[in-house]
Specification:
heterodimer; A: alpha+beta; Double Stranded RNA Binding Domain; 5-stranded antiparallel β-sheet; elongated; B: mainly alpha; 3-stranded antiparallel β-sheet; two-stranded parallel sheet; globular; disordered C terminus; binds protoporphyrin IX containing FE
């Protein structure tokens, strides 16, 4: 494509619509239209100029606003589809198979289809992520395509424009003026905070040009945000671990080397509806119990620099802190959150060693359910050997006891009881409900005495180094939208011909109402000719034509 | 009077003031026979003054309730929806002072009344805050969102006026149907209000036990005669009407019953109006928009989105993410309420981009603005009541 030389002598880059210097229309289409398209100042945009190579085609595709809106609408519809049924993260199942069954069982055929289409995990699906990626590409290309020429054009504005340019602006006036009209207009416009430049017989008044960069600033913000989201897929930027910790326990914090956490106490408090809480009485009566506080009192330890691995005294206390919802523990770029809990987990069980017939007791033993010992020696030669421990006993398979989980929900013990009378030992299998004697009738048994419980706190360990990037993106986005939406770019061109006739044109990217309000003040003060809104004229004409058609 | 009583009385005052202002705005618009706008602006001034008084009372309700409950009154369905009615009026006041258009008041105020009445059908007792809500972020996040939604909704009101003016009601068309469907759905909301008030005045209550979708036993109280029964229901109240149909476990038959009664009442009311006026509701309103400048309505609609969009971004996305990061350890979790906030945001982003091209200004924009309001209401009502998630208020 060739460069375009305007009648005024200026040489414009290929694809220009309005001469960069004087504003004359350069294309036939522009010459024939009643109003010029001012959106990008008639500059040459790459996407409107080249359409040969594959790169041009890709560029043009992504710089189109139609395509951009298309992507936004696709995302919007996809997002909505994902809320028809709960996503897999919200259903009470955690293996692929049980999740699949859950959808089928709970929602029938609809659930099966939803699951089969992958909608149960829509937001991490391949195609959804691709769509977001396309949004990012579109943002970048569309912005570059417009920003560069727009910036150049607004930077190099001339004061004097060709009358044909002015005549095709939406706000236009032509008529006789007084001698001092230009000067008074300049005065008034300056007072209204316009930047006024003059050149020979004309002036250009401009206000709020920076608002034109708003969309590009906000798009940059979005791109930074999306970049931050992408980064969290890289190892090291993002940690998300859960940590179940029992009261009294001290545990190494997963993925956080050198730090330990002790759970001193977990507390769940409900609203009582009494004391200062009477005001909630009515609501509590209606909905039942409502939680008031979840709290884990912790001690954070750090391993001393020079401590030997595993040394007990090699830790120093960093902090004591109550972790509550909305009040995570923060240290060293990590945060630990109160997320979940289990009340009254079994901690230890105490049994009495008795003779079944006489019910005489020969002593007691306590089995720690998390870390049981193998042998328990009582006085006078009585002892117990723990042969097998099944913390969450779920039944027998091929005669072998099974455990469903490693959590002590339903402990089962396979024990051998030794007494001076039975040195070979008697085998018995004990669960909370009953005792089985698999190898024949025994003389002795362990009788359940008592149980100790404690609460378990479910914490989440989190590090997210992308947060500052996301925050920056959000901030830039907000600055950009405020810049582009709460301000607007207003311009007036005024020229006085040698015979005293005034030409006036006005343009704004938004808020014509505000532009006219400004102009009315100037018109009154500087006695400018009355202006028309040519868009109104066109609309009226179109309407009249339409009605004419109906009448005829 | 206790602070709580003062608060509910102030809400009542606001309601009455809005009601009066609606009629005066209507009169101002209708009285403008010659199109001189003189009497219109005089009566408009009276009406906006009454609106301002109502709004002051409304703010009074808000802050006295805040004082009485000890937390920002934005924590349950009643409080949140009432606040939306209030910010809707607030948004109208901002745009009234920019453009001085009484006709906007004539449309916005009845909608605000409808929303406040709708809100009052939910339990208005003071809810205790669950741990996740015990933070200043509740006030910061939710109030910003509700202000933004109030402003964005003004764009729908302007759109509606635009459509009332331009859609030809004498010929059958999709547009005419769409417009009447909007009117019909507003009447349905009224139907819900009437049905709820009627059954609560007559003191209807029926208790059932049923088996929920996790196959657990549960109980439910109907406040309207049960048309639909819950899965494997057993009536506990002796003289309760026997449900006509039993629903499967995934459908909450109690809520479905409420919806059905609302539709029944609303539809009857709708046809009564049509019978009395012998016109479509849109046609009843048409004479009021005779002198409307549609360009101005288009501009108001656009301006409302322009003012509301950044506020919405701040409240519904940025503040929401900050809070979610503090309370739930992740700034985004694809919870349905979050997703619908994102959808609303994307929708208005699409609106702004479409308006960059010429073809989408005017009527198409007006339809989009109405659609935006529907999305906001969907998020407010349906997502809270149907798609339960972390944000569920009811
Ligand atoms: C969710 C994603 C997006 C958001 C939130 C967003 C936001 C915005 C906003 C607020 C404006 C200013 C509108 C106005 O002032 O009326 C704007 C302008 C614009 N956007 Fe986007 N945008 C997004 C995606 C895109 C995409 C994918 C494209 C690709 C074509 C795009 C292209 C443009 C263009 C060309 C403008 C006009 C620039 C100008 O007038 O100088 N946007 N965008």
């Amino acid at each position: 494509m060739e460069k375009l030389q305007c009648q005024c002598g200026h040489v414009n880059p290929p694809g220009t619509k309005l001469c960069e210097s004087c504003g004359r229309s350069l294309t036939e289409k522009e010459q024939n239209s009643k109003l010029v398209d001012m959106r990008y100042e008639g500059t040459a945009r790459r996407s409107q100029t080249y359409n040969k190579s594959i790169i041009d085609k890709v560029w043009n595709f992504f710089s189109s606003v139609k395509v951009g809106v298309g992507i936004i609408v696709f995302l919007l519809v996809a997002a909505a589809i994902g809320t028809i049924l709960p996503q897999k993260a919200f259903v009470p199942a955690n293996t692929e198979a049980t999740i699949k069954d859950y959808y089928a069982d709970t929602y029938g055929v609809v659930g099966q289809i939803y699951h089969a289409l992958g909608f149960h995990d829509l937001y991490s699906s391949f195609w959804f992520i691709i769509l977001v990626g396309m949004l990012a590409i579109s943002l970048i290309i569309a912005s570059l395509d417009r920003f560069v020429p727009l910036y150049k054009s607004l930077k190099n504005q001339r004061v004097l424009r060709h009358p044909s340019f002015m005549g095709k602006q939406r706000i236009y006036a032509e008529g006789p003026g007084a001698e001092d009209t230009l000067k008074k207009a300049e005065e008034k416009l300056t007072e209204l905070k316009y930047k006024v430049r003059t050149d020979k017989n004309g002036l250009l008044a401009e206000k709020g040009r920076f608002s034109r960069w708003g969309p590009y600033v906000n798009h940059i913000g979005l791109i930074i945000f999306l970049f931050g989201v992408m980064l969290r897929m890289m190892p090291g930027f993002y940690i998300d671990e859960s940590l179940w910790i029992r009261e009294g326990e001290t545990r190494a914090i997963p993925e956080v080397p050198g730090y330990y956490l002790e759970n001193k106490n977990f507390e769940l408090e409900n609203y009582s509806g009494e004391g200062g809480e009477e005001i909630f009485g009515e609501a509590l009566d209606r909905v039942g119990t409502v939680a008031k506080n979840y709290q884990t009192d912790i001690v954070l330890y750090k391993k001393k620099e020079d401590a030997l691995p595993g040394a007990v005294d090699g830790q120093e206390v960093v902090k004591e802190y109550p972790i509550r919802v909305n009040q995570p523990l923060k240290f060293d770029g990590y945060a630990i959150y109160q997320m979940d809990f289990r009340l009254d987990e079994l901690k230890a069980m105490t049994f009495s060693f008795i003779n079944k017939e006489t019910e005489d007791s020969f002593g007691e033993l306590t089995i720690d359910l998390i870390d049981p010992k193998k042998d328990y020696e009582l006085d006078n030669g009585y002892s117990v050997k723990l042969i097998g421990y099944y913390p969450d006993f779920s039944g027998f398979e091929n005669g072998e006891p099974q455990t469903a989980t490693p959590l002590p929900n339903n402990p089962g013990f396979l024990v051998k009881l030794f007494t001076p009378e039975t040195p070979e030992g008697e085998t018995s299998f004990i669960t909370i409900q009953n005792t089985v004697e698999p190898l024949g009738e025994n003389d002795y048994k362990l009788a359940f005495q008592s149980v100790e419980t404690r609460d378990v706190s479910g914490l989440t360990v989190r590090k997210d180094s992308t947060l500052p990037i996301l925050g920056l993106g959000g901030l830039i986005f907000m600055i950009g939208v405020a810049q582009g939406m709460y301000f607007n770019h207003r311009r007036f061109w005024i020229q006085q011909k040698t015979d005293g006739t005034i030409l006036l044109a006005g343009h704004t990217n938004k808020n014509w109402f505000g532009l006219k309000k400004d102009l009315n003040q100037v018109v009154e003060y500087a006695s400018l000719p009355a202006y028309t809104d040519q868009q109104d004229e066109i609309d009226k004409q179109e309407k009249a034509e339409k009605e004419g058609e109906v009448l005829s | 009077m206790t602070l709580a009583e003062i608060s509910s009385n102030l809400l009542y005052v606001a309601f009455v003031a809005y009601l009066i202002a609606t009629f005066i705005f209507g009169g101002a618009v209708k009285g403008n026979k010659e199109g001189t706008f003189k009497s219109e602006s005089r009566w408009g001034k009276v009406a906006i003054t009454i609106t301002l008084i109502g709004f002051a009372a409304n703010l009074g309700y808000f802050f006295t309730r805040w004082g009485a409950t000890g937390h920002a009154p934005l924590s349950n369905m009643f409080e949140f929806t009432t606040a939306f009615g209030m910010t809707l009026v607030g948004g109208f006041i901002i745009l009234y002072f920019l453009y001085k258009t009484p006709v906007l008041g004539m449309i916005v105020l009845p909608v605000a009344l409808l929303i406040i009445a709708f809100a009052s059908m939910f339990p208005s007792e003071v809810s205790p805050l669950i741990p996740a809500l015990q933070t200043n972020w509740l006030a910061i996040h939710v109030s910003t969102v509700v202000i933004a939604e109030g402003i964005l909704a003004i764009s729908a009101a302007a759109g509606l006026i635009y459509l009332l003016k331009v859609v030809d009601l004498t010929k059958k068309s999709k547009q005419r149907m769409g417009l009447e469907a909007i009117m019909y759905s507003l009447v349905l909301v009224l139907g819900f209000v009437i049905a709820s008030s009627f059954f609560s005045l007559t003191g209807y209550e029926a208790e059932f036990t049923y088996v929920d979708k996790e196959a657990k036993d549960a109980a439910v109280t109907y406040t309207m005669p049960p048309i639909f029964g819950m899965n494997e229901y057993v009536a506990l109240t002796d003289d309760a009407m026997t449900p006509l149909v039993e629903m499967p476990a995934i459908v909450h038959a109690g809520k479905l019953t409420t919806v059905t009664w609302s539709i029944l009442f609303g539809t009857v009311l709708y046809w009564l109006i049509r019978l009395v006026f012998r016109k479509r509701i849109a046609a009843i309103l048409k004479p009021f928009v005779k002198n409307v400048n549609i360009q101005l309505m288009d501009e108001i609609g656009y301006r409302a989105v322009i003012i509301g969009f950044p506020v919405f971004t701040l409240g519904a996305l940025i503040f929401a993410m900050i809070w979610a990061q503090i309370a739930w350890s992740r700034f985004w979790g694809w919870d349905p309420k979050e997703v619908w906030a994102l959808i609303t945001w994307l929708f208005y982003a699409a609106y702004l981009h479409l308006r960059l091209g010429k073809g989408w200004q005017g009527e198409k924009s007006a339809w989009l603005a109405v659609l935006g309001f529907i999305i906001i209401m969907f998020n407010l009502v349906a997502v809270n009541l149907i798609i339960a998630g972390l944000h569920s208020y009811a």
